[in-house]
Design brief:
With 584 residues, the protein is α/β, with parallel strands linked by helices. It has three domains: 3-167 and 495-583, FAD/NAD(P)-binding domain (3-Layer(bba) Sandwich); 172-258 and 437-489, FAD/NAD(P)-binding domain (3-Layer(bba) Sandwich); 280-434, no CATH class. Helices cover 35% and strands 15% of the residues.
Length: 584
């Protein structure tokens, strides 16, 4: 009997599993034959988000040199390291370029084909352009995976759920807003992948409230401006010439500012020796606590100290003229300070005279906290100034401690995967500092603001359905109300099991799979096995990706960073091959 594996989701995560299966098979698998069933309505490699069929105006959010699908000698895996080209090497691009998503789609397709070609002899990969709707089967036996519109299920020795970003049913607030829109003939576009949103409903010149200032907003901005025939002029492309078909976007969010720009210079000199205060030993200790751990109380102070270490290591070693203390003296004293202590604050104040050179994570998280403007124009000028200063800073090596903090964030993220559920706040904070838009996108945003096509609402935006319209208020401009007949929720849906539109995950949860406090699918962080409500891992079901509590960073893997995604993929692939070998 041929062995069978079902992978639900043929995008980058499913492709990464295939690559690790091919890498580990020579050591772990010698079966007579293997059928791998990829279940995804979208093309293998890119999947839904990275499919080739989307606007050529949409870019990747990472520089081409920072995108790879292949392991290197920094990756701590049990399986073999099989190096391969990063995106810039494969495509012949400038490493600093932000490639279009179509280019990334081609790269992912090539990686998929290379992985398939490396699978053991006798392996056949079947692509089913459908959705999986249910999985069932005993712990000790084969699983059955039903596909939409197909009567007979696929039989599988093991199943991997790698669906990626999921659609979701609206929560109570979104349902109320949608009902208000229906009653009054308004437009309400719920959270969605922007490339799939029907933007034709937004009329030229129409005021549109936009709630969300992250990467989904950047895509929306592009598709409603250049995508409607507008263009940028000038040597720096700093002047926007409207086509007349754009709506007017009034954008705000909880923070009221866009994510920080990608850093526009390379690292030089000695890197901070990470991890230091949040490494394997500290994670072991947190996991061993009988009463569990609390993120804010137990984990965040370690993160804060780790990021501070990275920041001050760079400041005092690369810019010693801006400090009153030598690094070795500072390091010794910093090491002795308890996380989050007043002693640490006093040490920093004595060693770093300019407050602008000190790391203030609270101010970075909420830059408009306490900021109040008295006029609409003052708010626009204030936000343009904030964005311009951020752009200048993130492209100036004099502020290279910012890049050290970025490296610290990557280190922290790699450790936190072992803690599984760390809540949603951390992922938002990480994205704010480490996963912001390319600098050119923020320069375009400034040009759009000067042209009046984008207008800023401020922080702590509240949207209400009132008087046959949508009305937005912000704490940054007290008393001011912005009214519109269209509202766009510029963000991805929250991937909770309770509200997912994925029928397989919904059924799995109903039948006993565990959900975390954040509503994510609970998995064993060691290899991604799905946990039941008693915490028992299913021996034949695995899940990886943003719908699980072992989700990794949203961005693609940077070379030479010991990526947690590679580590997860390798552990899962080896577990799968053990199952398939045992099935023999």
């Amino acid at each position: 009997m041929r062995h069978s594996l079902v992978i639900v989701g043929a995008g980058p995560r499913g492709t990464g599993i295939l690559e690790r299966l091919a890498a580990n098979a020579p050591e772990l698998y010698a079966g007579p034959g293997l059928d791998i069933h990829l279940v995804d309505p979208h093309p293998p490699g890119g999947g839904r988000v990275w499919r080739h069929d989307q606007s050529p105006l949409l870019w990747m959010n990472s520089q081409a040199k920072d995108v790879t699908m292949f392991t290197d000698d920094t990756v701590d895996v049990a399986g073999p390291v099989l190096p391969g080209p990063s995106l810039d090497e494969w495509a012949g691009l400038d490493g600093r370029a932000f490639a279009g998503r179509r280019e990334q789609s081609r790269y992912l397709r090539w990686v998929h084909e290379k992985a398939v070609a490396g699978l053991p002899p006798g392996t056949v990969v079947h692509h089913h352009r459908r959705r999986a709707v249910r999985v069932a089967g005993p712990h000790a036996g084969r699983q059955a995976v039903w596909l939409e519109g197909v009567t007979a299920p696929l039989a599988a020795d093991a199943v991997v759920l790698a669906q990626g970003h999921l659609d979701a049913e609206p929560d109570d607030e979104l349902r109320e807003l949608a009902a208000h829109a229906e009653r009054h003939g308004l437009v309400h576009l719920p959270p969605d992948f922007t490339a799939d949103t029907d933007l034709t409903r937004l009329a030229p010149g129409e005021p549109v409230l936009v709630r969300g200032f992250g990467l989904a907003f950047v895509d929306l901005m592009v598709l409603l401006t250049e995508g409607r025939g507008g263009r940028y002029e000038g040597d720096a492309h700093d002047t926007y010439v409207p086509s007349g078909r754009e709506p007017v976007l009034y954008v705000g969010s909880r923070r009221g500012v866009p994510y920080h720009s990608k850093i526009g210079y390379d690292w030089t000199g000695e890197p901070p020796p990470l991890p230091r205060y949040l490494g394997p030993a500290q994670i072991d200790e947190l996991l061993a606590r009988p009463g569990g751990h609390d993120f804010r109380h137990d984990v965040w102070p370690l993160i804060e100290k780790e990021l501070g270490f990275a920041h001050y290591h760079r400041l005092l070693t690369a810019h010693p003229e801006r400090a009153r203390m030598a690094w070795r003296d500072f390091e010794e004293k910093y090491d002795a300070c308890a996380p989050g202590s007043s002693e640490r604050d006093a040490l920093v104040a004595s060693a770093v005279p300019d407050p602008a050179d000190r790391l203030d994570l609270t101010a970075l998280d909420r830059p408009l906290s306490g900021v109040r403007h008295t006029s609409y124009e003052a708010l626009q000028e204030g936000l343009r100034g904030h964005i311009a200063r951020d752009l200048a800073r993130r492209h100036d090596p004099a502020h290279s401690p910012d890049l050290a903090v970025f490296l610290g964030l990557l280190s922290v993220y790699g450790q936190l995967t072992r803690l599984a559920d760390v809540g949603t706040w951390w992922h938002g904070f990480f994205s704010l500092l480490a996963s912001g838009p390319p600098g050119p996108r923020l320069r375009q945003l400034l040009a759009l603001s000067r042209a009046g096509v984008v207008r800023f609402l401020g922080a702590d935006v509240e949207v209400a359905a009132e008087g046959g319209a949508f009305r937005a208020r912000s704490a940054t401009l007290p008393g001011h109300v912005t009214e519109a007949r269209a509202l766009v929720e510029a963000r991805l849906p929250q991937p909770t099991l309770a509200r997912t539109r994925d029928p397989l995950l919904r059924a799995l949860h109903a039948e006993g799979a565990a959900a975390t406090g954040a509503g994510l699918l609970a998995v064993d962080p060691a290899d991604g096995r799905v946990l039941d409500r008693a915490g028992v891992p299913h021996p034949r079901r695995f899940a990886l990706g943003p719908h699980t509590n072992a989700r990794g960073a949203g961005a693609f893997t940077r070379p030479r960073t010991n990526s947690p995604s590679f580590r997860q993929n390798d552990a899962t692939a080896r577990a799968l091959l053990d199952i398939l070998g045992a099935a023999r």
